[in-house]
Prior knowledge:
The protein is of the alpha/beta class. It has helices at about 15-25, 75-80, 105-110, 145-160, 180-185, 195-205, 220-225, 240-245, 255-270; strands at about 1-5, 35, 50-65, 85-90, 90-95, 115-125, 135-140, 165-170, 190-195, 215-220, 235. Helix 1 (about 15-25) packs across helix 9.
Amino acid sequence: MIVSIIGTRGGIGSTTLLSNLFVQVKNNETSHGWLSLTSPFPPLFSESSTNWKKVFSFKKNIPKWNNEKCTYCNDCVDICVNKAISPLPNGYNIYSELCNSCKACISACKNDALKFELNDVGFIEISNDTNFNLHRINLNEKEIISTWHIKEIFSFLRAYKEKNSTFFIDIPSGLHEYWEEILKLSSSVIIYSDDPFTSDLIYKSHSPRQAKLILAITANSKTEFEKAGYSFAISIPKNKIIAFDSIQGKIVTDIGFNNSIINLKNIILEKFPS
């Protein structure tokens, strides 16, 4: 099972919510894992994330030119919608961070001067601390995360994770354009927001995926949400105790917060069994 969390904006505590849920579900077992697309890790894991080992490489097909066949006609430059190719005095430069391996440039070349070459553009690594089973993404400089990366990540997790284990993925709020892909590939997704109307809009806009969505909103938005006629969102407290525990790298002690975590855990384990 792969559980992702999407915070509708940064700073509302989605990482704190997911990291505490992860510890609750993990329950001292080592089979469950965490994958962070954000940096740095939540303070709760900070002491367990100092020694890393590569476990997966992102390999992307990048075009390579045969200078003996190339006539420098610029057809490859003109057809590239991502502007990943620029002409040089004696050839072409490819910006791998912009290339999505669509093969348009290869198809456009009348002289068969281009071919794909497999390149390492980043990797997934695991902390050698086996207690938390932490993973993180480490892309090459300028390499921009894309739908292709998301698909590769989920493919890796499905092949890598143990049977009956759960992986928790912390998704940055800025990756809005990849939410649909994440919703499609995850077993379940927690949508976390402090704006009830945004939460409802997101929920309705992804109606084909609603069966796997869990809507969570900050407690101070719960009243507004209910006034609008909705009652299915889980309320998540947000206060100074929670913030202090999170900053100190502690499991949150607030009773209301922990009750919400237990509700989330029960929903995930009962509705989305591994």
